[in-house]
Amino acid sequence: METDQLLDRARDLWCHLAGAPAVFGPPGPESVVVAPASGLCPPGWSGVVVLGGELLATAPTEAAARCLRQALGQLPSTDWTDPARLAAHLPLGDALGPAALAYVAASDFRPAPAPAQAAADGRAVEELAVDGDGVTALLATVDPADADECGLDGITSPAFAVRDPAGRVVAAAGYRRWPRDTAHLSVLTAPSSRSGAPARPPPAAWPPPWDSANSAPSSASRSDPPAPDARPPADAGRGGRRIAAMLTVATWNVLHRVHAENWGSHVLDRWPQEPERIAAVSARVAATTEQVVALQEVSGDQLASLREALPEGRTIRALRYPRVPEPRRVPNRLADRTEHLVLVLDRTAEVVAAEAFADAPGKGLLAVRVDDVLVVATHVATGDRRPGQLARLAQVVAEAGAEQAVLLGDFNADRATVAAELGEGYRVAELPPGAGPTRPRDIGAAKSQWIDHVVVRGLDSRGALVEDVRGLSDHNPVRAVVGR
Q1: 385 plus 417 within the same structural domain
Q2: Domain range holding 289?
Q3: In degrees to the nearest 10, what's the CA dihedral of 389, 390, 394, 397?
Q4: Number of alpha carbons in the 13 Å side-chain half-sphere of residue 482
Q5: Which of 291, 322, 435, 479 is surrounded by the fewest CB atoms within 10 Å?
């Protein structure tokens, strides 16, 4: 692949991970953006990536972004990821990196030798489970920091390994799937073998020498005073290790027109013409940068619009409820008033379960497997039916054998209630102090205004926030980053 094409693909990947509309360029408002859920750095931090002499940076607040733009604008491009140089212009509280990241096109990988030739050369490659004895023993030969840095524990492929004459695994490599058809490579060689022939990782997983034009220095920094949650996760690692195991997600109840009319929603005042609102909803979903978006109360008209509006590379998985909403106050205005639970994904995904709840034919769950994570979209009923439906969600996760799961949806209950009724091991992402409501209501209303949630099991969540859609629906979207 030509260098320019590879550079463009790498930039597209990082723009996607930024979590907000952004482009590479000189320091400015389009390249240094506000992105509280950025995948470039831990929550509450600022992150910088440089590719081909241009930068992309994210900051948690507008004030931090302004300071970062000003500081970067005073430095030559060679110093943009140098914490020491940045510290002369910014009140840095802490820093991670920089790390030199590199890229190679699939067409430039060396082919693996034929099995017979590999065996004759003593370079036979085995496919092993990453949690098997061989790879576990290899990881034990290095200190914990090196074991974490190599990233083998986060791969989703098998571990491609070679052994020494004594049968010990002395080198292994593998990859984890990232967005934008990118594979993140992880490699480890036992210290005792790094000067010998086995030190070279398996050819099928080892790129040729890197072209310096394709390297991408990156760093993350935190300015004082830090936000209360601005500490990096314990497993954030060095040089972006955290990013390799993260998934950006969102959930939004987009409001079915028939429900809006039956309940006299205020949304009707702002959007009297449903085709215009449907188009606006589709445009907003199409512009999202999250890898997974769960949508509730999707009408048949809205679903058709989404299929037309989504960019290439996005896929839809949908559950059609057996109940079709019936107009009770005004005549139906939809061509297709069926109702759907929808997942919008940046990749294909295996559907594991799709069902309406037994006691609520207009509520349900849709579960898919995204790499090694079970993603469940849901819409849960209120009142006495809720505990049983939450129990069913937990049952589906258990039946799928999922060690890592994320539940996205309208739970019609506050954070504490959802956590308690789902049971042990489930954690609901915590919104920052002062976050806007996910379901705005009149002042004094008895029901909670925070009923849409990102729930994790076997994962951490960070950067959760509520996006104000200014009355496009009666709910606001919730966004977050989940990972290990």
Answers
A1: yes
A2: 244-483
A3: 70
A4: 29
A5: 322
CA 292 to chain centre: 7
DSSP string covering 238-306, please? SSSGGGGGEEEEEEEE---HHHHHHHT-THHHH---HHHHHHHHHHHHHH---SEEEEEEEEHHHHHHH
Cβ neighbours for 261, distance < 8 A, ≥ 6 positions apart: 268, 327, 328, 329, 330, 333
Residue type, 203: P
158 and 139, same structural domain? Answer: yes
User: How many domains does the chain divide into?
Assistant: 3
**Ranges of H-type helices in 74-218:** 83-87, 115-120, 133-139, 144-150
Nearest Cα residue to 245 out of 235, 255, 254: 235
pLDDT digits (tens, 9 = 90+) for 367-394: 999 988 999 999 999 999 999 999 999 9
CB atoms within 10 A of CB 308: 9
What is the dihedral sign for C-alpha 289, 290, 291, 297? negative
Strand partners, 92: 223
* Rounded Cα distance, 295 and 159, in Å: 36
Taking the C-alpha atoms of residue 431 and residue 465, their distance in angstroms, rounded to an integer, is 6
Sign of CA dihedral 73, 79, 83, 84: negative
- For 82-233, where are the alpha helices, taking DSSP H only? 83-87, 115-120, 133-139, 144-150
Residues 62 and 185 in one domain: no
Question: Does 433 share its domain with 291?
Answer: yes
Give pLDDT tens digits for 406-458: 999 999 999 999 999 999 999 999 998 888 999 998 766 668 999 999 999 99
Dist. CA 482–CA 396, nearest whole Å: 20
The Cα 265–Cα 387 span in angstroms is 27
Task: Give the CA distances from residue 279 to residues 150, 355, 467, in Å, rounded to whole numbers and listed in that order.
Answer: 45, 28, 18
Together in a domain, 248 and 235: no
Among 255, 461, 481, 296, which Cα is nearest to 378's? 296
251 and 392, same domain (yes or no): yes
Query: How far apart (Å, rounded) are the C-alpha atoms in residues 295 and 311?
Result: 17
Q: Which H or E run includes 316?
A: strand 315-320
Q: Using CA atoms in the order 466, 471, 473, 479, what is the torsion angle rounded to 10 degrees?
A: -10
Instruction: Give the number of residues written for the chain.
Output: 484
